[in-house]
Amino acid sequence: KKMERFVLFLSFVLLTPQSVLTLKSSSTSFSSVTKNRRAALWFPIAAPLAAAAAVPTEKETNFVSNRQQTTQSEFISGLAGGAAQRLSKDIVLHPIDTVKTRLQRAGSRRLTRRIFADPFDGILAPLLIGVPAGALFFGVKDATAVLCKGFNEDLVEFTTVAVANGPYWFIRSPTELIKVRQQLDGTTINMTGITLAKDIIQKEGLSGLYVGAIESYAYALPTDLVKFYVYRKLKKSSLPLTSTKNLVAKKAILGSIASASAQLVTTPLDVVRTRAMEKRTPQSTTTTTGGDLSIPERTLAIIREEGVGALWSGISPRLLRALVSGGLQFGSYEFTKKAFGGPSTAAL
C-alpha cells in the first residue's frame, strides 16, 4: 500500500507540472518543450510500477483465500456441532425443562403430582425446529467469529452471540411457544404441534406464534454471554494446566459450571419469558401472563403480586438442568465440531 501511494505520488509530481505547461500558448520556449518531453519519458516507467503496486500480492491473495476457507469450515463444523448439542439437550433435558416451566407458571411454586406428569409434553416441536435452529446458531456464531478475528475478544463474543441469536429465535420462537403451552396447559396435551399452531393463528393471528419472542431473545442474549464468557475464561485458565487426555470430558465439566453460572444470574428473565408465553384464561386473576406487557412491566407485576422470590421460581430444576445441559452442550459440540474438521471452538 505504501509503495503504491509513493509511486502514484511520484508520477503526479513529475507529470502534472509538465501537463500544465503543454496547455500554455504556442510561444512556449524550446527549452520548456524539451523539459516536457524529458519528463514525459517518466510515464512509461511510472505507470507500470503503479499498476504493479495496485495488483494484490500472492501473499494477500492466499490470505483472503485461507480466510474464506476457514470461514466456510467454521460454518459447516459449527452447523454439525450445533445440531448435535441441541439434539442431545432436547432429548435428555426435556423432562427437567417441563418441571421447571410448570413451577414458573403463575401460582404454581409448590411441587405436586401434576408437576411431574407427562414429562415429555411438547418435545416434538423442539426436535423438529430446535435442532436446525441450534445448528444455525453455532454455524453463524463460529463463522462470524472468524470474520471478527483480531478484535477485542469480549467485543467479538458479544457480536457473535447477538448476531447468532437473531435467526435462532426467529426460527425457534413459534415452537418454543407451542412447547411451553403444551407443558403448561393440560387441555393441549393431546393436540399435535401443528393443530396447536393452527389454533393459535386462528385465535391470535400469525403474530400470535411470536408471543414471547422478544422476551426469549432478551433472556438468551445475557445467558449466552455469561455462559460463553465464563467457559472461555475457565478454559484458558484450567485446560493449559492439564493433559490433553479426555479433553472433551474436561471441557464438558467446564461447560457445566459456565451454564449453571449463567442460569443462576438470568433466572428472573426466564420466569418473565415463561409468563409472557403462558396463555391468559378468562378465569385468571393475575396480570402477569399473556403477551401484552413489556419486560419491565411484567417484572414489576410479578414482584407486586407474588413477591421478589417469584422471579426465582424453578431455580432448583434450572440449576440441575444447567449442570447437565452445559456438559452435553459443550461436550457434544466440541466432539462433533472436531469430527467435522473444524478448529475447536473458534468463538469460545
Automatic annotation (TrEMBL):
Superkingdom: Eukaryota
Solcar repeats: 72-147, 152-237, 246-339
InterPro entries on file: MCP_dom_sf, MCP_transmembrane
Principal localisation: membrane
Keyword tags: Membrane, Repeat, Signal, Transmembrane, Transmembrane helix, Transport
Phosphoprotein as UniProt keyword: no
Signal peptide span: 1-22
Membrane topology: Multi-pass membrane protein
Intracellular or extracellular location(s): Membrane
Any one GO CC term of the record: membrane
Pfam family, one: Mito_carr
Family under the similarity heading: Belongs to the mitochondrial carrier (TC 2.A.29) family.
Name under which the protein is recorded: Mitochondrial carrier protein
